Amino acid sequence: QVQLVESGGDFVQPGGSLRLSCVGSAAIFNIYNMGWYRQAPGKERELVSNIVSGGRTHYADSVKGRFTISIDNPKNTVSLQMNSLKPEDTAVYYCNAQYGSISFWGQGTQVTVSS
């Protein structure tokens, strides 16, 4: 089965930057829709950003202009560059791969934005 492993989460002050990475165990990123979700304590999981196989991207309104999703197919890696971080960005961030009814999830990486 495909495995996704996230990394890059950390404690950062408001206004700082982090880059999250998700490495897959198989070369599927060219056909699966890839996305980043996050879930803050006591809140619902929400879509942060996704990218389809054709390269088209989507961002939640709350992160537009601050976050950038990208894929490195040869390395089976999807990344999320996060700039101008805010306290409300604090959450566990999850990598997702979706194709029809098939979905894979990583275990998550913690991002904490606080002064």
Question: What would you note in describing this structure?
Answer:
- This protein is mostly beta strands and 115 residues long.
- It has strands spanning 4-7, 11-12, 18-24, 33-39, 46-51, 57-59, 67-72, 77-82, 91-99, 102-105, 109-113.
- The strands form 2 sheets. Strands 2, 4, 5, 6, 9, 10 and 11 form a 7-stranded mixed sheet that branches. Strands 1-3-8-7 form a 4-stranded antiparallel sheet, with no helix packed on it.
- The model has no long low-confidence stretch (mean pLDDT 94).
Order of helices and strands: EEEEEEEEEEE
Helix segment tally: 0
Beta content: over 45%
Low-confidence stretches: none
N-end to C-end Cα span: 40 Å
Strand and helix map with partners:
Layout: E1 4-7, E2 11-12, E3 18-24, E4 33-39, E5 46-51, E6 57-59, E7 67-72, E8 77-82, E9 91-99, E10 102-105, E11 109-113
Task: Please provide a brief summary of the model.
The chain is mainly β and 115 residues long.
